[in-house]
Amino acid sequence: xxxxxxxxxxxELEPAEALEELLEEIAEGLGLxxxxxxxxxxxxxxxxxxxxxxxxxxxxxxQTIDAVQHLAQRIVFPEGPSEVRVVIDANGYRxxxxxxxxxxxxxxxxDAVSSGxxxxxxxxxxxxxxxxxxxxxxxxxxxxxxxxxxxERYLVVTPRAGG
Length: 163
Fold this sequence. Notes:
Shape: elongated
Strand order of the largest sheet: 1-2-3
Oligomer: single chain
Largest sheet: 3 strands, mixed
Order of helices and strands: HHEEHHEHEHEE
Strand content: 15-25%
């Protein structure tokens, strides 16, 4: 039996198992001593790495972890778009990044209100733009929208009319 025949007969992995296997292979390939945990909840499949040397996995400005998350979504759900989103984290990077995005959003909103004009943020991946949109929606004094084309799509914060 060829390797191809064996692959064709291999049972399909459940999404959580496929994600865990993928993350373990990546960690091993990068030579990381990291623990991998996968949990599913409310339409999100979380893959988390913990360890002392996961900086390489996160990458400069989160570029590597973002790329792994993008690929993992497609590998775990090869049939196409899924209602379940894959989120990859390492040593709490995503929450630290979300806190930094919220602080940047507050600064942009304050600038927009004080200047009376639009403030453009740097380009962000879709899931990070969503964090800012949702966070600023709670403020009553600004509105947000996205402009540009991926991967250079960015968020614009404008003061709300009459606000």
